């Protein structure tokens, strides 16, 4: 009778039993009489012990054919061992190589340059640190879906090929049959607004594209964004939703991905303080504060990365900057009735200098004002007829925001650059692998 296959994470429920495990070799060590094979199967890491005298000669010989990343199948008894990773080890009775790997596996336990690693991203994903990041990212995505699902938001999938432009940053375009130019969506928001009038509370969550010629630590040309849109929420409600949302995501990672965060050497005390409410600074006050701190920023400018870092100094949780000047922000934001030079919007700045993770706003719900803004920005009116209709047929106060997934992953994991926060990053100079 052949023994059952088990995943490494489940082995602690098989102590004393004989099982088979499949996976890849990560470390090898041998004294000549006893050999250790550390393997991973995606669920965990397992130490396998081979004792020469108690094994058939072929099995011991198979050991000699192993190298980093060889795919193997082992069988043996699961033994409890406090010192082993996962608290168990496998006393191997048989070992089969199912996928050999030449000895020149490029990623070695030493320092490699970032371009070397990115060129081999398809293999780099297998390393412990990258696996930890992938699991935290997964947890964040799941937390996002759970947060909105529990609050009765409907997920609406918005198009990637669009005719209407959402943001000011660069556009990727392609020919679209006889319809002229199609743009890859920079945001799903405009479609989300239409859906909010149908469903009340919605969110979209998908890849977005920006042809930004910026080589910063925070910019990707393809990134994932989650964008809720809520009928009858004003800008203040919007910020409240954001702080609850961000706190929920962080606390969820602390609860469920502590091991991964520890593996990433993240200072957990810096995440534990991320609890709503978050401090709020009016844009004009922010500019005054920045001037006192020696920034060259002038009223009217959007805030740069350095300004954002200066603003969060001394705060143990994210900070909202609200009501930016109209000229610094997108056309769809609602004019502030108390100061028409500004719009009802906010950015949410992560602590520790991780920068803007959210951009949000109350939307312009006045048809004629919105039309004027579209004209001022010289956007193609014919592509916005449907968007203006939302203000014609039953206009409504509404607000929403976009949270950048990779920036959030980078912040929670403590990564200096967003390129490690997604499996296959797309940047100005990187389209492969
Ligand atoms: O501030 P942004 O441009 O806002 C919007 O797109 C709105 N339509 C959102 C909304 O109100 N529904 O982008 C939102 C967030 C930023 O705060 C940032 O986290 C992320 O998206 N982001 C990027 N992330 C990685 N690479 C880039 N090039 C990014 N551009 C924006
Ligand atoms: Mg923004």
Word description of this protein:
- Helices cover 30% and strands 25% of the residues.
- It has 433 residues and is of the alpha+beta class.
- Strand 1 and strand 2 (34-40) form a beta hairpin.
- Helix 4 crosses helix 6 and helix 4 crosses helix 13 (405-413).
- The two termini are 43 Å apart.
- The mean pLDDT is 96.
- The structure holds 4-amino-1,4-dioxobutan-2-aminium adenosine-5'-monophosphate (4AD) and magnesium ion.
Short description:
The chain is α+β, with helices and mostly antiparallel strands and 433 residues long. It is 30% helix and 25% strand.
Number of domains: 2
Order of helices and strands: EEEHEEHHHEEEEHEEHHHEHHEEEHHEH
Report mean pLDDT, rounded to a whole number.
Answer: 96
**Number of helical stretches of at least 4 residues:** 13
Please describe the biggest sheet, giving its number of strands, its sense, and whether it closes into a barrel.
8 strands, mixed
**The CATH homologous superfamily of the largest domain:** Bira Bifunctional Protein, Domain 2
The computed structural class is alpha+beta
Percentage of residues in strands: 15-25%
Second rung of CATH, namely the architecture of the largest domain: 2-Layer Sandwich
Question: Given this structure, which CATH class of the largest domain is correct?
Answer: Alpha Beta
Radius of gyration: 26 Å
Determine the CATH topology of the largest domain.
BirA Bifunctional Protein, domain 2
* Helix fraction bin: 25-40%
Number of strands: 16
